Every structure is written in structure tokens, then in C-alpha cells.
């Protein structure tokens, strides 16, 4: 069975939050050399939080992390830490395994929590999974919300800021489709798509990809779009009606 080390965030959160690599537990990690260190936790699509409820004020994720991947039946994720090339790098991982742990004195000072992100458009980016595009669109309607329509730079920037604050790189359906054999997408309300921000080599010319998704690309700090098959199971994302 996987042997891991678990750090109790109730006590050590200020260390990792501040990004201090010289503290005693860093040396302990290096000398013990465990496979993983489990730290902060979250559910898919929601922000990582320390044990005191604070959002992350410091990050040191490995390249292409977090990727927010988890089995449908085990959506809770953790930040795991490894000692790599004289650094402590973070990545997201599904909770599992046996644990040992390192603690810090409870009286240590705590880092200030960053503010909650603004969400003036009422975006709801959830971890709830639906079977296909139609089911996601229907769930928005059932919740008296509407599917996400990024038809302005302001909306795109707003959802970008929300994804960034939550370390959320999950692809979500956009409220638009194209007819089979045609290249142009239209919003579900009939409007033309005028402000697309497609990822490189997107949209695909594959006739099976009639829907589209958006996702946050942290290396560019922007929201990118990509074509998608409409029968792909995805998580629910809506905005206030």
C-alpha cells in the first residue's frame, strides 16, 4: 500500500502559505523523502483551503498542475507536495493511502487570507457531473440559471478571475453549438459568436465536435475555447439568469 506523509494544516499552514523553504519541516521532508505530503484539500472545481478555512495566498504548483482530475466517485482532492531539485513543488492528488505526519507548534502566526473573488455575473462552476451537453444545459434551467455565454471581454475576464482564484482548470461547456458539416458556431439564443478565443488549432474540423468548452490556461492567464463532442460527460457550469 502507498506510504505517504501527511502534514497537519491546522498547525503548519503558515509555513506553506508563506512559501518559506527554510523551516524545519522542509528539512524533514528532504531527509525522510516520502512519496507525497498531503496538505490542503478541496472538492473538484472549488478552491483549495487550509485547515483554518483560508484560501491559498501562496502557490508553488508543478508544471501543468493542478489539473483537477479525479474519479467521478471520489471527487475530493488534496494538494500534495514533493521535494524535487531542492524545491517543494505542489500537485493535486486524490486522497488515498497510509499516513505519517509532521506538526508545528499551534502558537505560530497565520498568513492573511486573500479576499474572496468577485463574481458579478453569478458564475457557478461546480463539480457536479452530467452525461452530455444537453444534460448540462438542462441542469442550468432546472436551477433557474442559464448556461454560460461568454459574449464579452468583461465576462471572459470575470470567469478567468474566478477560475484562477479557485485553481480550476476544468473544461466546461459553453452555451453554443454548430451544425454538422459547418464551421460557424452560434450561441443557443441564436446570436453569432463574435469574440471567440480559441486555443491553437481549434476549433477542430471533426464533424463529431459540434459543441465547445472553455477552460482557464494559467500559463497565459486567459480563458481558451476548444471544440468538443456533445456526448462528453462534463461538470455543470451556469450563470445567474
UniProtKB/TrEMBL annotation:
Domain of life: Eukaryota
Keywords, sorted A to Z: Disulfide bond, Signal
Residue ranges annotated for the C-type lectin domain, each copy included: 118-239
Signal peptide (UniProt feature, chain positions): 1-17
Membrane spanning stretches: none
Name of protein: C-type lectin domain-containing protein
